[in-house]
Input
Amino acid sequence: MTGIPAHRIRSVVQHALRSDGDYVLYWLVANRRGTHNFSLQYAVEWARKLAKPLVLFEPLWLDDPWTTDRHYQFVLEGMVDNERYFAEKPVTYYPYLELEQGRGKGLIEALAKNACLVISDDSPCFFSPQVLESVTSEISVRFELVDSNGLLPMRSSERVFSRAFDFRRYLQKNLREHLNDFPLSDPLAVGGIPPKVSLRPLIYRQWPITDLKPYARSKACLGKLSIDHGVGVLPIRGGTHAAGQLLQAFVQHKLERYLEVRNQPEENVSSGLSPYLHFGHISVHQVFLETVKHAGWDPGHLSEHVNGRATGWWGLHDAVERFLDQLITWRELGYNFCAFCPDYDQFETLPSWAQQTLEAHAGDSRPHVYSLGELENAGTHDPLWNAAQRQLRSEGRIHNYLRMLWGKKILKWSPSPRQALSRMIELNNKYALDGHNPNSYSGIGWVLGRYDRAWGPERQIFGKVRYMTSRNTARKVRVKHYLQRYASHDQ
Ligand SMILES: Cc1cc2nc3c(=O)[nH]c(=O)nc-3n(C[C@H](O)[C@H](O)[C@H](O)COP(=O)(O)OP(=O)(O)OC[C@H]3O[C@@H](n4cnc5c(N)ncnc54)[C@H](O)[C@@H]3O)c2cc1C
Output
């Protein structure tokens, strides 16, 4: 039946398809959008085949990890966008905001009970094996996950890549065939989807739909939810519409300078798309298509050379190639890792050379040791680090170059490398809008040696793990205005 590549579909619960169910259920988890979405496309295919209505269920739970005003507002903006978008489409969109802890209990089970099958998004961080295990016990019908994460299907190879170079070589050999397998830009435009239905009254009675807009727009409403209100909302808007605008602005005005000044913290030439990619408000396929359209690319430009280099394979300007390398090689490397290493946030998943050298230096004396609270409040002796931490708190992001330094200093100032790992995870995921993503764990893992090699000379605390200092950073990139900007600016 399917136009979806087989590698992208994974059966989780082997229960039978219930062809006398009321509807096909698509549960939006990581692809919170109506366009360029393989999961939605797959659900549409089933709805047409079974001649059953399609129900799209997009929940926001209170017990997700790192639930803060900042993250909730962003996701809620996306849900408001989706509500408007799906209202015009032949689907029943059912957004659910859990207003009190535990109120959403039983909802998945109740929705699945009347479904022919349940389809959701294959996402290593949103659907960890533990979450999947608890969810599957509630689903008594066929349940499948669809991978829309990257240009390369996440499970097309079971190999876990330990270097970007190897992964890039793999992509150069294998990505070509997947460039013909893109999701439809509008999977709901195909026709033949049965008219929308109402869910059973019991569902609306027990789990009523909330007016999302007040929650997305007002701090007072968010304040009623039992989430972390200490992490303030941001002036940037979530949702598919905002993501599309950002993408256009990036390809038209910034892409050209991406290579030249991407590493300069005082320049703002990167796309800013990571939170939108994280919550699935935009798809990597769309970002890729808009980028190469702007660059005048076609598949005939691809090089036959497989050399693992970051530029040269696409047959494009270096700035575009470098962007595609971040968007595809580096981003999908993280998905590859998290898909096959469920303990992706554990010290034991670091390369063995890194574990050994960090353990060997765990007892080294440390000139400065800060508590988590001191780090969180940007209270160190290092003005550049404090500035980066303040940017994280106030803007939900750190410029990529300084994000590396930020992590390296946490390693230096923590009582042990294991504590450094847990502190980076805590601070990154609590404040960064793009946190708790496979890229979070590759970035943080990189600080501790993942995807890197051993470096000499062997140093205190770091051992053979790559070392960075604020002084060298300030020599390499311009930071004067950055320091002024985030001098004592706090949320
Ligand atoms: C300590 C540390 C923590 C990090 N935590 C996160 C995180 O929580 N979430 C996150 O998305 N990224 C994280 N990164 C990677 C990187 O910093 C961000 O992806 C990037 O800065 C996002 O900005 P952008 O969208 O403007 O990127 P652009 O430069 O415009 O790149 C486009 C996209 O490519 C991907 N990308 C870019 N750089 C990287 C990279 N180094 N590794 C993997 N993917 C990349 C992202 O999806 C990004 O949105 C971390 C890096 C480090 C060193």
The CA atoms of residues 288 and 324 lie 8 Å apart. The radius of gyration is 23 Å. The chain has a mean pLDDT of 96. The longest strand covers residues 54-60.
